[in-house]
Design goal:
Layout (H helix, E strand, L loop, with lengths): L5 E5 L1 H10 L6 E6 L10 H10 L8 E6 L1 H9 L4 H14 L8 H16 L3 H6 L4 E10 L8 H17 L8 E7 L15 E5 L5 H8 L9 E2 L8 E3 L18 E5 L27 E6 L1 H5 L11 H4 L2 H14 L1 H12 L3 H4 E3 L2
Parallel strand pairs: 1-11, 2-3, 2-9, 3-4, 5-6, 9-10
Antiparallel strand pairs: 1-10, 4-5, 4-8, 7-8
Helix pairs in contact: 2-4, 2-12, 3-4, 4-5
């Protein structure tokens, strides 16, 4: 049996639609991007292929919904020159360096520096005025004990949230409030989210950079972002806490969602990573097409793994950068296979059920 570098999975509605009528890029209404930190490097070449070969055939508005690193990627997508923005992001991310024992302040400052490089002088205005894309960012507003920056108290709050989450995912609402920063030009399919306390904040030039920074602010790793303009006062953190892989309504009824992802599965929340029974609601991903590296491809990467945050602790800076650069180079194979599938109209034949 031939091996592939990519897997293509789809929710029931998308699977039936594409197998019956074929795939048309104009049917895409949403592109989704999950949390995952350094894992994004495995998608940087695929992102380029999507931007070059699929996006020109899309019809707007296209909703971009991301949490954490997904929103950072989409801050590149929606700029006037997205390929240049991705290259800036990739260069700055690969080049990041720290002292021997960096604290939360050093890591936060480096994150701000990288974001400034990604956005450049005009990126915010370009994102907000994009003719094709509507950018939406999912963060969380911390509640009660999780709003503190005292490490001991914050850790206690996170442990409590994790324990209660094993019994009920809805319990996360006691600790965090969803904060949806949205492009007010067009309401997205997930505008009326249910299940958790929700605050909706219109994106503007005053808050876009803070929203992107906040959604990537991993508790205990980076400082939260306090009192974002236009939002309720408080501490804002990583959107992946609740929406790790975006268990929310991805698509309008007549549209499909494209989800370039690190994995071939969707884990609802950050605290669900070790809870294999916790899966997304089928209706949320009914019209979602998930694209991810295959297990065979991942085994060929340096250390036989996708880059992740643990690499900072497990490898020397030189070893980490060497492995990450090799991963990015190897992932050109993903872009090539994606392009071939699209050009030869093979998606229907390659699709598998999402579960």
């Amino acid at each position: 049996m031939a091996t592939h570098s990519l897997t293509f999975r789809a929710g029931k509605g998308a699977l039936q639609s594409i197998r019956k009528d074929g795939f048309d890029a104009a049917s895409i209404g949403t592109i989704a991007g999950a949390s995952g930190g350094a894992k994004w490097l495995v998608l940087s070449q695929l992102d380029r292929a999507i931007l070059c070969n699929l996006v020109p055939r899309m019809r707007g508005p296209i909703h971009l919904i991301g949490s954490s690193i997904g929103s950072w990627r989409f801050a590149c997508y929606a700029q006037d020159d997205p390929l240049a923005a991705i290259q800036r992001f990739e260069n700055a991310y690969l080049a990041q360096s720290y002292s021997a024992r960096p604290d939360i302040h050093e890591i936060t400052e480096k994150s701000r520096e990288i974001l400034a490089i990604v956005l450049g002088e005009t990126g915010v205005d370009e994102i907000l005025s994009s003719a094709l894309f509507r950018t939406h960012i999912m963060a969380v507003r911390s509640r009660h004990i999780t709003a503190t920056e005292n490490r001991g108290l914050l850790a206690a709050g996170l442990i409590s949230a994790a324990l209660m989450n094993t019994m009920s995912r809805k319990s996360l609402g006691l600790f965090f409030e969803r904060a949806l920063f949205y492009d007010s030009r067009d309401a997205p399919p997930f505008f009326e989210l249910q299940g958790f306390p929700l605050q909706r904040i219109g994106l503007s030039a005053l808050n876009l950079a803070d929203a992107v920074l906040a959604t990537g602010s991993i508790p205990l790793v980076l400082s939260g972002v306090r009192d974002i303009p236009g939002a309720a006062p408080g501490m804002y953190r990583d959107g992946g806490v609740i929406d790790y892989h975006l268990d929310l309504p991805h698509s309008a009824e007549e549209k499909l969602t494209l989800f370039p992802h690190f994995y071939d599965r969707i884990v609802p929340g950050w605290f669900d990573k070790k809870l294999p029974w916790r899966k997304p609601h089928p209706g949320n991903v009914d019209r979602t097409v998930l694209i991810s590296p295959s297990a065979e491809f991942v085994r060929k990467l340096p250390h036989a793994k996708i880059p992740d945050r643990s690499d900072f602790a497990n490898y020397s800076p030189d070893e980490r950068v060497t492995a990450w650069r090799a991963c990015v180079a190897a992932c050109a194979e993903l872009a090539d296979e994606f392009n071939e599938v699209m050009v030869k109209d093979q998606l229907a034949a390659r699709l598998q059920p999402l579960w």
